[in-house]
What does this fold into?
Amino acid sequence: MKRNYTYLSIVILFTLSTMLSIDAFAGKKAVRLSTSETDAEIYIDGKLMGKGNAEVIVMKNSCVTVKVLKVGFLDEKITFCNKKNSAEPPKSYYIEMKRDDAYDASVQTDVANIDIELKTTKNEQDAWRLISMIITSYFDVIEVTDKETGYLRTFNLDFVSIT
It folds into this structure.
């Protein structure tokens, strides 16, 4: 009699655990995500899950945050929710990544990130004042200025040396 009881309890426990796992996944939704850039990194809830495309699984009564990153492009962030009072996640979702104009401007110029040496007949004080005025007419912020060494760096990391 004891042997049948043990067998019966094992069958009931197995059946209950199977039913619970089915219920946990029964309401999940899958979203097929793709991006315009095939090498863009796709992070799902902070974990790298693919490049260019990925499958996003949204469990019942939860939300998933997707972030897409690529150097030279604006970061994209979207949240998919699978909750009772929210819109149902789409079956597929396409992200058209937008170029980052600030990044393009910083790498396309031929004077960015190089040293420029200026020679003048003005005294050091007047030359420093003049170059500071010229630089601030093109850039809003001077990040570092060191008159002693003749070093000036704008926020865009352009370098000027006065000798």
